[in-house]
Structures are given as structure tokens and as C-alpha cells.
Write a structure and sequence with these properties.
Number of domains of chain B: 1
Organism (chain A): Miniimonas arenae
Largest sheet of chain B: 6 strands, mixed
Protein name (chain A): Transporter
CATH topology of chain B: Rossmann fold
Strand content of chain B: 15-25%
Strand order of the largest sheet of chain B: 6-7-8-3-9-10
Radius of gyration of chain A: 29 Å
Structural class of chain A: mainly alpha
Order of helices and strands of chain A: HHHHHHHHHHHHHHHHHHHHHHH
Largest sheet of chain A: none
CATH class of chain B: Alpha Beta
CATH architecture of chain B: 3-Layer(aba) Sandwich
Distance between the termini of chain A: 35 Å
Strand content of chain A: under 5%
CATH superfamily of chain B: P-loop containing nucleotide triphosphate hydrolases
Largest interface: A-B, 45 and 41 residues
Keywords (chain A): Membrane, Transmembrane, Transmembrane helix
Oligomer: heterodimer
Number of domains of chain A: 2
Radius of gyration of chain B: 20 Å
Number of strands of chain B: 10
InterPro entries (chain B): AAA+_ATPase (IPR003593), ABC_transporter-like_ATP-bd (IPR003439), ABC_transporter_ATP-binding (IPR050763), P-loop_NTPase (IPR027417)
GO molecular function (chain B): ATP binding; ATP hydrolysis activity
Number of helices of chain B: 9
Chain lengths: ~575, ~270
């Protein structure tokens, strides 16, 4: 059973490689990387064993070991959670979930480059003990390290199976998948901020030692702390920690077995009652309602101050677009990225002030908030530059209905603009005024508006002319663009360049604002507003004409993308 | 590899067919998917397009309805060229494609509303028709649920509703009964029968012969991208469409079972 499953995994790998040749390169690079990592680990362990003092050695081993275990518990679930080459449900028809099958699956999951590297690196921790103490101490510690290293590696691999199996069970229903996508996105955003935060907090060596001391008693750090106890002759502590390790393996094993059994026995989604929603594209109806009849609607029209004349098709696209911004995890991930921008700006200001003492936080912040509006406008408007790809093959409905390209373009812009424009205006006006930079508001607003108008225009043209693979509906938002990453990168770069050109006239008016007086900001506002409207009009028309010409081509291309 | 395609179909103003494909030709890489000259679907017919899996049914219907650009040839909807005047042609077409997604983060009611508004209809008309369609298709109770949470049968039905909301004159349905439960199937059959009785034209593809024989007035058989027979069900099938189909597509009838396939116990 075990050998069969391992062989199955290699067969699957071989078939994938034969079908997609470029993956061979990826695999080779991964292998080289793994070898390098291994060499680095061996050198590091020897260095630790020979040179470092025991305290540093213990701390480093426990911290790195804990990071390894934690990494295995989280990363496969978040990043490769959708790697269902050995999906349990596919076996459900042929097998009963016995412990032997579960063990085979565990081994088959472990035979991979990362698995092999983890086992080998864990074993090399023995090298850290060959350099110090008496012969008896060295030999016993090294031997124990061999065993606990293997146990640690087993913990890594087992936890990975537990978390991925649990996650795949959760993600079977749509709601679970949605939630997982949003959580994964949030996790990635938070993790990407951790180094910055750590740096600003200013960790000292003693806090590392304390952290390692705590971790050494947890399932994460225990396997890596036992040899040190043995070397120091603390046999009681060593046994207690070994008990932690074994208990972890035992509990994880039982949990894994249960998860396997449950996910093979339960078929289908198994989700609760689904969400209900009574409105029928409220934004579309708000856009189409005559001003006279505005009072009788169930909801107030969001955009009543600005009368936008739209066709039913454009209004429909706008209404649908807004629904997706609020309900689709892929769009929610974009919203998250937009919402993160202000946080980043604030964090930056805080970092600058925490590094040096001679600038006041308030002073730096007052300058930093000037960027809030423009940055949000930029990221926000640009975020729909691949919008048709997000429709996936559902775009056929637009093709079948013969929606005019310009209506399609305008609708997508409206669905985003209806909340993005007020947000940007608010961010461009309120924080600067509150922090005493009111004089800068016209300039900031002007730049923000042209970034909105220009960004929308770029999005209108690019999403019609150069769609590139996006995550399909229902997929993890972080799993994006595996196939066309080169194309994606090129398109993003090009669209940024074009946006830069569109913003240039307005940006030039900033020179007198900085060099002379902030009164010139009114010129920025005037130029920004006018060019924003012009770019938007041109973008909608031109993008619309492009889409009229190649909507069918776009649909055909989307159909050729995997999983769409 | 270009096929000799006449520029126009023979003019016959007396009876303009509801759908008329003309010299459609499509290759995907080295494989010729569709190489089929003429398929005439008379107005008011209930037309079944049958063929084994991979025969090119979906490709043909996609090209005939403006969803896939043919390499050569075109299609006419009531005489309007789908690829020269798509706007006019598409107004008369209602389509239910197979294997393409729906905007499934909308509720059922929203999706039908969306389809209606996309076609430029008045919001009040769309509202009334959406309610009617949901009612007739037995979806009123699930109208406010996301299409993503629908079952396969419900998804087919809501797809049919999006194809019907603008009251088209020609309905082109790709595998409308696939994975549909019997109750939903009878809903769909009733709507289609009523539609044809009132002068509409239905074109559906299927690989279930019994279904086509029972429902349709006309049938066309295609295999390996070519049209091998077309006409009324009686003309083509001669009483046993299943057998005739097997002859046409060159499938041998299996008469003997597997000698070892006997129920075993244990």
C-alpha cells in the first residue's frame, strides 16, 4: 500500500512533467536550491557545534527548528492547499480509510524535495553536538539528536498532512473556500508586514533566548531542545520534552487518521444553508431610475448627486460589478490591498520617526497623509485592468447579449467608482485638513482625480486588449497567474508606464506647488480634473471599440486558460 | 486548407430558415473540429443535433451563435448574418451554452435580471419576466440564493431563464437535459414545447437518442465534425433512431457481453 501510493505520486509527477515541459526546469532549480540549502545547513550545524557558546547554539536550534515545524504546518495549507494530486475524495470510491492507507498517504506526501530536505536537515542537527564537551556527552547528545531530529521531521510532515487535510475538508464547500481565500490573503498581508514590525520593535538577544526557552516546551521547539538537555545531563527535563514530542506525534497521528476517515466518508459539500439576498442589482436600478421616481425605491440611490446617464446594459454591468466587489473573495482580496495602502503609509511614517529622534512623528505623519488619496486612487483604479479575466468564461453572456464594448467598460468603471471615488476624495481632503495641511488639499485632490480617471482609462483599454490569466472564480485569490506570469508582469509594467504618461501633465503642475506656493495647487486641481474626465472618456470609448472588435477573441482566449 | 465556400446561401425568400449554417469550418491546432457545409433549421422546428462525444456539436453551436469565430463560413439567423451583423442576429437568439460558467456570485433572480438588462430591456419588464420565469421553472424558493450554491439541475434551469428573458425567436441549447433531475427536466420540456407550439424554434444538442426521438420534429446527426444526416426524425431515423445513429456514426452494435461478468458474492 505504502509503496503503491508513493509510486502513484511519482507517476503523477512524471506525467505532469511530460505534459508541461517547463516544469522540469522548475524542478531542477528546486533540486539545486535544496542541495544548496542542505550544504548550508551542514556548514551551519558544524559551525554551531564548534564555535558558538552553548546558549547561542540552543537558542538557534530551537528557534530555527520551531520555524521549520510552524512553516510545515502553515505553508502547505496556504500556498499549496490546492495541490490535490492525492486528493482523499478521489480514493474514496476505491478504498476504505484504514490506518495503513493513511500512513501510505503520509509517506507519499513526504517523498518530495522539501520533505527530503527537511528530513536531512533535521538529521544534520546531530552535527551541532560533535564539537563540545566530553566524549560521552558528545556521543550521547549526537545520537539523541539523530533520533529527535527524525522525530522533529516526522512532526513537520505529519502536521502538514493534518493542516492540509483539515483545510481541504473545509474548502470543499463554497463558503469554506471563500473564507479560506480571504484568510489566506490576510495572512499573506500580515506576514509580509512582520519583518518591518520586528525591526521597529528592536528585538534584543535576551528576548530571543526567552522565546526559545518557551518554545522548547511546545510541540514546535521540543524536538530540537532534547539533545541539549542530554548534553547537560538534565535527564528529567530531556524525558519531559521527549514526552511532549511523542505526545504531539500521537495526537497529530490520531487527528490525521480521523480527518482522513471523515473526509473520505463524507461526500459532497456538507455546507449549511446558503446566504440569501433579496435585492436585484440595486445599483443597476438606482442608475436607471428616473429622478422623479427616485423616492419610491427600496434603497436610496448611492450616486444621486451625480446624474450618470447609462444604458440598461452599462447599469447592469455596474450593479453586477459592485456585487462582486462585495462578495467575491478575489475582489475582496483587491479591496484588502486597497485598504492596506493607508496602513502602509502610516506605518512608513511611524518607522521613519522611530529610527531617529530629531523628527516629530506628527510632522512626518502630516506629510505622509498627503499620499493617502493618490496612492489609494492609483491602486484602486488600476485594480480592474484585468477585469474580464475575472469574469472567466461567464463573459459569454456579454458576448451573447451583444453588449456594446463602451457599455461594458463604463459599467465596470461605475461599479468600482461608486465607492472608490468617495473614498479617495475623503482620504485626499480629511486627513490633510485635520493635520494642518489644508493648503495642500487642491494639489493632492488634483493628482488623486487624474490617477482615478487615468487609471480607469488604462483599465478600460488594457482589460479589453490584453487580458491575462487571473485566478478563476472560486479559486484561492493567492493562487493567481501560474501560467501567464511573464505576460502578467509585462502587461502590468506597460499599464503603469501608460498611466505615468497620462498623469504627467498634472504632475508637472506640482513643480510650482513645491517650488513656489501651494496656491498653485488650484492649477493642479483644474488640470487634474479636466484631464481625468478626458482620459476617462477616451478610455471608455477606445476600450469599448477594442472590445467590440475582439470580444469573441477574448472569450476564446479565456476558454483556453486552465481551470477557467 | 480553405474550404470552397460560396459567398451567400441560395436565395430563397419564400421560407427563410430560423438558423442556417453555411460552410462552417474550424480547426484547433492539427485537429479539424468542424467541417460541415450546410445545416438548415426550419422556422418552428424542434431540432435535435445529435452525435457522439467530441463530434463537434458544441463547436458548431458556438460558431452558429456568435460565441466562437469560425475559420470559414458563417451562420444566418432568420437571414441575418451572425458574423456580419451580430447585434441584429443576437437579439433573436437565446443561448444556453454547455461548459461555460455563469456569473455565479449573483443570486438566481439577479442573474436573470442581469441577462435582461444586458440586452437593453426595460427594468420593469425585466422584473416581471424574471418573476414569471423563476415561477415556471420552480426556482422561486431559491431565487435569492447564490447561483454558486445551486445544484446542477438548478444551474441549467437558471441558465435557460437567462436565455429566455428577452423572448428570442430561436433558442439554441447545448445539452439542456444533461445532469438535470426528472422533475426539472419536465419543467424544461413543458416550456420548450409551449415555445415551439407558439412558433418558436428550438435547437438542442444531445447524445441521448431516445430523448431526441421523443421531443424533436427534426434531427441532424454529426460525427467527427461532419454532418452525416439531416431531416425530420421520421426521415432520418425510420422508426429506430438509435440503430440508424449507430449505422451513421459507424459504431458496431455490441451483441455479446463479457463472459466473466457474472455477479460474484463475497
Amino acid at each position: 500500500m505504502v509503496a503503491t501510493l508513493a509510486r502513484l505520486r511519482f507517476t503523477l509527477l512524471r506525467n505532469t512533467l511530460l505534459r508541461e515541459k517547463w516544469r522540469i526546469v522548475l524542478l531542477a532549480v528546486g533540486g539545486l536550491y535544496a542541495l544548496g540549502l542542505l550544504a548550508f545547513a551542514v556548514a551551519g550545524m558544524v559551525a554551531l557545534g564548534v564555535a558558538a557558546d552553548p546558549q547561542v547554539r540552543d537558542t538557534v536550534l530551537v528557534l530555527l527548528g520551531s520555524a521549520l515545524v510552524l512553516g510545515w504546518a502553515i505553508v502547505p495549507m496556504v500556498a499549496f492547499g490546492l495541490d490535490n494530486t492525492l486528493d482523499l475524495q478521489r480514493f474514496a470510491l476505491y478504498l476504505t480509510p484504514t490506518p495503513r492507507f493513511a500512513f501510505g498517504l503520509f509517506v507519499a506526501g513526504a517523498v518530495s524535495i522539501p520533505g527530503a530536505v527537511t528530513v536531512l536537515v533535521s538529521v544534520t542537527t546531530a552535527l551541532a553536538w560533535v564539537g563540545s564537551g566530553t566524549t560521552a556527552q558528545r556521543v550521547s547528545a549526537a545520537l539523541v539528536a539523530l533520533v529527535t531530529g527524525l522525530l522533529g521531521a516526522a512532526t513537520c510532515l505529519l502536521l502538514a498532512r493534518v493542516t492540509t487535510t483539515a483545510a481541504s475538508g473545509l474548502m470543499r464547500g463554497r463558503r469554506g473556500r471563500d473564507l479560506a481565500g480571504v484568510v489566506a490573503t490576510g495572512a499573506v498581508l500580515v506576514v509580509s508586514l512582520v519583518p518591518v514590525l520586528l525591526q521597529s520593535v528592536g528585538l534584543r538577544l535576551s528576548s530571543f533566548d526567552a522565546l526559545a526557552g518557551v518554545l522548547a516546551w511546545t510541540p514546535l521547539g521540543a524536538p530540537w531542545a532534547v539533545p541539549s538537555d542530554v548534553a547537560a545531563g538534565r535527564w528529567g527535563v530531556a524525558l519531559a520534552r521527549l514526552a511532549v514530542v511523542l505526545a504531539t506525534l500521537g495526537v497529530a497521528g490520531v487527528l490525521y487518521l480521523r480527518l482522513v476517515r471523515r473526509s473520505m466518508v463524507s461526500v459532497g459539500s456538507g455546507q449549511g444553508p446558503s446566504a440569501e439576498r433579496t435585492g436585484r442589482l440595486p445599483l443597476a436600478h438606482a442608475l436607471l431610475r428616473e429622478p422623479a421616481a427616485a423616492g419610491e425605491g427600496a434603497r436610496p440611490a448611492v450616486i444621486t448627486p451625480v446624474r450618470v446617464r447609462t444604458t440598461p446594459a452599462a447599469a447592469a454591468v455596474a450593479g453586477r460589478s459592485l456585487r462582486y466587489w462585495r462578495g467575491d473573495p478575489r475582489y475582496l482580496a483587491s479591496t484588502g490591498a486597497i485598504a492596506l495602502m493607508p496602513v502602509l503609509v502610516l506605518l512608513l511614517a511611524w518607522l521613519v520617526t522611530s529610527q531617529s529622534t530629531d523628527v516629530a512623528f506628527r510632522e512626518v505623519l502630516a506629510w505622509a497623509v498627503l499620499a493617502l488619496g493618490p496612492v489609494t486612487a492609483w491602486i484602486g483604479a488600476w485594480s480592474i485592468h484585468d477585469d474580464i479575466a475575472y469574469d472567466s468564461t461567464a463573459f459569454w453572456l456579454h458576448v451573447a447579449a451583444g453588449v456594446r464594448g463602451a457599455d461594458d467598460r463604463l459599467g465596470r468603471v461605475l461599479g468600482l467608482a461608486v465607492w472608490l471615488v468617495p473614498t479617495v476624495v475623503l482620504l485626499a481632503v480629511v486627513p490633510p485638513v485635520l493635520l494642518g495641511r489644508g493648503a495642500w488639499v487642491p494639489a493632492v485632490l488634483g493628482i488623486s482625480l487624474v490617477l482615478l480617471g487615468g487609471g480607469f482609462a488604462v483599465a478600460c483599454v488594457f482589460s479589453a486588449a490584453l487580458p491575462y490569466p487571473a485566478p478563476p472564480p472560486g479559486a484561492n485569490p493567492m493562487s493567481s497567474q501560474s501560467g501567464g506570469s511573464v505576460l502578467a508582469f509585462a502587461v502590468q509594467l506597460l499599464s503603469f508606464a501608460v498611466l505615468g504618461l497620462l498623469v504627467l501633465p498634472t504632475a508637472l503642475t506640482l513643480i510650482p506647488v513645491f517650488a513656489g506656493s501651494t496656491a498653485w495647487g488650484w492649477l493642479t486641481l483644474a488640470v487634474g480634473t479636466v484631464t481625468a474626465v478626458v482620459w476617462l472618456a477616451v478610455g471608455v470609448r477606445w476600450g469599448g471599440r477594442i472590445l467590440d472588435r475582439n470580444a469573441v477573441t477574448v472569450l476564446t482566449r479565456i476558454r483556453s486558460w486552465p481551470r477557467h | 486548407m480553405t474550404s470552397p465556400v460560396p459567398p451567400r446561401p441560395p436565395a430563397d425568400p419564400g421560407s427563410v430558415p430560423a438558423l442556417h449554417t453555411w460552410g462552417l469550418f474550424k480547426r484547433f491546432g492539427p485537429k479539424t473540429a468542424v467541417e460541415q457545409f450546410e445545416l438548415v433549421i426550419p422556422t418552428g422546428s424542434y431540432f435535435g443535433l445529435v452525435g457522439p462525444n467530441g463530434a463537434g456539436k458544441t463547436t458548431t453551436l458556438s460558431m452558429a451563435t456568435g460565441l466562437l469565430q469560425p475559420d470559414a463560413g458563417t451562420a444566418f439567423v432568420h437571414g441575418v448574418d451572425v458574423w456580419r451583423d451580430p447585434a441584429t442576429a443576437k437579439r433573436q437568439l437565446g443561448i444556453l451554452p454547455d461548459g461555460l460558467r455563469l456569473f455565479d456570485r449573483l443570486t438566481g433572480a439577479e442573474l436573470v435580471t442581469y441577462a435582461g438588462l444586458l440586452r437593453g430591456m426595460d427594468p420593469d419588464v425585466v422584473r416581471r419576466r424574471t418573476d414569471d420565469l423563476l415561477d415556471v421553472l420552480g426556482l422561486t424558493g431559491d431565487a435569492n440564493k447564490l447561483v454558486a450554491d445551486y445544484s446542477a439541475g438548478m444551474t441549467k434551469k437558471i441558465g435557460l431563464a437567462t436565455a429566455l428573458v428577452h423572448a428570442p425567436s430561436v433558442l439554441v441549447l447545448d445539452e439542456p437535459f444533461e445532469s438535470v433531475d426528472p422533475v426539472s427536466a419536465s419543467h424544461i420540456r413543458a416550456i420548450l414545447a409551449d415555445y415551439v407550439a407558439n412558433g418558436g424554434t428550438v435547437v438542442l444538442s444531445s447524445h441521448v437518442m431516445e430523448l431526441v426521438e421523443r421531443l424533436c420534429s427534426h434531427v441532424a446527426v454529426m460525427t467527427e465534425g461532419r454532418l452525416v444526416a439531416s431531416g425530420t426524425v421520421a426521415e432520418v431515423g425510420g422508426g429506430d433512431l438509435q440503430r440508424r445513429f449507430a449505422e451513421l456514426v459507424g459504431a458496431e452494435e455490441v451483441t455479446e457481453g463479457l463472459s466473466w461478468l457474472r455477479p460474484s458474492r463475497g
